[in-house]
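Hi there,

I know you've been waiting on this one. I reran it after we fixed the sequence typo, so this is the corrected version. Both the input and the resulting structure follow.
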Amino acid sequence: MLIQQDMWQDYRKGKGIKFNMKEFLTIKENVQEEITEKKSRFIANLFYIKDNEEAEEIIKKTKKKYFDARHNCIAYRVIKDDKIYEKSSDDGEPSGTAGAPMLNILQKNNLINVLIIVTRYFGGILLGTGGLVRAYSNSALKAIESSIKIKMCYGQELKVGLEYGEFENFKHYCKNNDITIIYSEYKENIVCKIEIDEETKTKLMQDFAIKNINLNYIKELSKKYITKSI
């Protein structure tokens, strides 16, 4: 689903588009790829972004870096408060030939918190609308294919307390259940902060209740999107 004008107005007002987003993909690190079409260079830069403010700052820096390029076309998607904010721009290319196709690719690949900027150095040969769509789409796809994907899902931070003698068992339990131990404090007893998805949290609470795992307590902290294995 491409973003429509009324949705873009909501975006500008900070409303975003409401989705029931339990999990999505993002990228681990920034990627750059390049293709050439009829002497025009298309340089695709794929960025991980935290929010739209960071995206806009990167766009400004990229346009400054490639100041001598003909076009710097963009598309990005970010999530905040369970809403997805989307933006695309053709940056002077014929309408619908650059930004919208790249945004559509991000949507189809379920990529969020990602910015794609494709810079074009004109080679003197016109590509036509179909050629432009293919060139910008292929540039974006090449960068996406080269990136390392990370799955993010809705979960929660928890704090757990346990005895020293139970720590190795707990680490083994976390490894088997894809629970991330963010940090551990070594006091009179061990205190761990962990990240856990909702389904695994239910299992943890059940195991805690029936003493399948020996913990002194479990305290719920903030809800957030957490990293999961792919």
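Quick highlight: The radius of gyration is 22 Å.

Best,
R. S.
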